[in-house]
Amino acid sequence: MASADNLHGVIPYLATPVDAAGEVDRAALRRLTEHLIEQGVHGLAPLGSTGEFAYLDHRRREAVVETVVEAAAGRVPVIAGVAATTTADAIAQTKRWREIGADGILAILEAYFPIRDDGVESYFTAVADAAEAPVTIYTNPNFQRSDLSLPVIERLSRHPNIRYLKDASTNTGRLLSVLNRTEGRLGVFAASSHITAAVMLIGGLGWMAGPSCVAPRQSVRLYELCKAGAWDEVMTLQRDLWALNEAFARFNLAAAIKAGLRLQGFDCGDPLPPQAALGDAEIAVVRAALEKIGAL
Amino acid sequence: MASADNLHGVIPYLATPVDAAGEVDRAALRRLTEHLIEQGVHGLAPLGSTGEFAYLDHRRREAVVETVVEAAAGRVPVIAGVAATTTADAIAQTKRWREIGADGILAILEAYFPIRDDGVESYFTAVADAAEAPVTIYTNPNFQRSDLSLPVIERLSRHPNIRYLKDASTNTGRLLSVLNRTEGRLGVFAASSHITAAVMLIGGLGWMAGPSCVAPRQSVRLYELCKAGAWDEVMTLQRDLWALNEAFARFNLAAAIKAGLRLQGFDCGDPLPPQAALGDAEIAVVRAALEKIGAL
Amino acid sequence: MASADNLHGVIPYLATPVDAAGEVDRAALRRLTEHLIEQGVHGLAPLGSTGEFAYLDHRRREAVVETVVEAAAGRVPVIAGVAATTTADAIAQTKRWREIGADGILAILEAYFPIRDDGVESYFTAVADAAEAPVTIYTNPNFQRSDLSLPVIERLSRHPNIRYLKDASTNTGRLLSVLNRTEGRLGVFAASSHITAAVMLIGGLGWMAGPSCVAPRQSVRLYELCKAGAWDEVMTLQRDLWALNEAFARFNLAAAIKAGLRLQGFDCGDPLPPQAALGDAEIAVVRAALEKIGAL
Amino acid sequence: MASADNLHGVIPYLATPVDAAGEVDRAALRRLTEHLIEQGVHGLAPLGSTGEFAYLDHRRREAVVETVVEAAAGRVPVIAGVAATTTADAIAQTKRWREIGADGILAILEAYFPIRDDGVESYFTAVADAAEAPVTIYTNPNFQRSDLSLPVIERLSRHPNIRYLKDASTNTGRLLSVLNRTEGRLGVFAASSHITAAVMLIGGLGWMAGPSCVAPRQSVRLYELCKAGAWDEVMTLQRDLWALNEAFARFNLAAAIKAGLRLQGFDCGDPLPPQAALGDAEIAVVRAALEKIGAL
What we know:
TIM Barrel
């Protein structure tokens, strides 16, 4: 078992391979896990949004976590996604993923009706209590109906297990506001909606995002250049990588990643219906973006 | 078994009673079902938004449908909610609710990533195919990430099983657009966000909504006045009833209904955390609205 | 001079005819005014949104009010639009329109930065003080950055000059909330986004909207049927009229009205650039809607 | 006369000082202009959003441009804001500001009804044709009803006079998309909603924003550190400066700048009603932000 005490760098949101019957394709997921570790990623995040958590029932989610934990075999930390509408379900998922061997938890609140700040805080606190391991809280004003406000983030950052935040908005300034308010208590990760280089510049730890599934080597290279302070080289690489992020912003995220992985020889099936697989013109955009960075 | 071939009138969205452990309180749900039928409602809709479907796992949803079907005992049609992110899950729920004895299906699409029109259409078509019974399609631009566009509604209205639409927007004009486009193929039900009298005036069949759980008698009276064309009396009653709708629009829907039911002696527990129960000031608003219409 | 003390019925938002140089075409505006009065409208509202107030400078707005007041010649009340970002400008417009002879004022707040409730209230109060005549307050959450909240509307309804409200949202229920809260102090008018029949049913006074420029006779007929309580006939006519409202909701409002007027022989020029005139396919939709109701 | 051919660095959006009667306070504006030039700013942008252009009529806008052009006396370029709903008005403003002596134009589209891409393109093209000088196009999805899409920006970047873009969204990644698409033809400036350091890192030219009115020296220092590639020092300063941006994002922009200027001894009056001046608690936030960076 690895540790999530010092998360940093490139932690891909794993696509979830499924077969024609909608079952988790464990062999494909093992192969993808092995490939990403070989490429040098610093951690793995199954069951993020790219991983289609919202389309998988408990049994399938369990299969995902089991497969990734086994395949990673302690070489890099596995940060498993917990997403629920009820606190009780979130606690149950957290405990189960930890039993299976996840090193850390990525905590997502799925609100149907809007939730007040105190409810949001209680949800994430309950997950952190149950995790007995480092928790990354997830904020996304675009897909979540109730989001983490800055005062709630500040309060949550005082929980000993709440150690990281991943922000999936496009508002990079908000990350600086978080860093200023949490004064070293909360490490910040970018999503594919941010310019990685900018997040690294302001003090971010790395990024947790879908696109690094299809560009793991280039993502790691970008991270290393950032750490070395080689900002001119960073920007040369970042400019090329950005076309990939743009493609993911335009298309269904899971469909785009799965199309890219298929082009690279890692067939993970299609996104679960009624989500659509990418069409030919869209695949061409993904192909061009991958070719530009030498990922194909 | 009743029939959903001729749905009309007042079809309450049932609250889902839960105990302290979060389990479905079957006794309370039976009692509520019995009470509403006694008050003259024309149907029952378990697992609507008010019924907290988004907070219940499959096992609990099954318990809800079973309990309501048994308690209704064929006296009024039971329209059970199907809500899923994947087409496969929606089909499975549809088949199971029908096996249990639901007379019709209320079909809801839970999109995490946005879905294109053809995906939306395929989802509802799959539910309708599986239902082998009348289906009500649900549209709510406020809570659903991918909504039913008018062209999709028009195409779906040609499916022999897609017979009704419930609209939970505040845009009453959209219902008239639907009626004009579907030319008698689709019956329209209002939600609590519409003025019932206005929907009845333009040709609606009735309403499926949470508030009639706490005002069943007054809702039935309003329906009868509408059918009789007694519009002056309709508006006298409607004006008083509207305060109830306003309260539900301001507060968490499930919390407001459960507070109202508790005041009426039907304790259904609290909404599932992290949703909050109403506070004292909010309960006072619900109480005043109920007293005004003689429902307390 | 007519009086705005008893506004009701059909009060068209007048299109503003302009020539190729962008100057107000006074002759066309006189002709339109004459035509609408002949068709039986109950009032005239120049400088509403359909009248492109936002595209006209003070000199052109003055020309519009002068022309309509002169052409109406006291036969029906003229309700002139006041729209400004600053309170000082709103007061100046109000005083000038009243000097010219406007019988009432339609008050619109154009906010660039969001304004708090007390600022919104002070703006409308200042207009009402300056008007020394009945004022209609305008609320449109879709086009206005700061809107009138229900508590502000309730407070404003106690000003002796604030007598009417026109709501341009699609939320008909909000009008019932306004009526309930203002208890007879505020008369309510619908916009083209509402079903007129529904607004009349709940106690509205009529409608102020662009589409009645191109369907004045049919609009007056609908109003008379509503007043007579002939709801079945109301709905037969309303269903046909609704296609017109749908066309205006889809297209640029001013472009749609100007296209319709041109088809009817009242050439009012095109909307001011960079707004575009309707294309051929869009004109065909307007033509079909007009033919359906016998307005062409 | 200075030149706008090589815009870069810190170009404050000037507040517009007004007296109690709402007239432009030319003496205060001259004093502010002199002060900012002394502090080393690289240009001046009167009539931006901070400058309350939306609250000033043509006569007052003219007074602002005249005063700033005269006071700047060719020492730094003056980029005057043009904002209109009609193309004709935008052309007239552009020509007049250029006659008065503005070195460049900041072009803003004020749409009331939504405008299609071809209309947006024609508006900015007309301004650029009339300017006969470098034009900065302004994009702000939060305050503008019709915004510049990436394809329109790409096409506009080929106009010889369209040389710069200022983006007032919070989406820093969009700036990188613009830079990638316009390949050196369009220089990019940040607004106060972006982290300046991040925009400089990705290749931005500087920032045009209100907050540098109250922190000109610190803003210039930040710019120089960015140009020197001293990113560690950049971030130390940037972190402190960010609290200022946060204050401006929370409060009315003009009110916040005017409060800050008053604290610094440059009384510019209050924002034009119905905008409200900051209250005591809000002023305290601005004061703290200014003290933290030594600007008070």
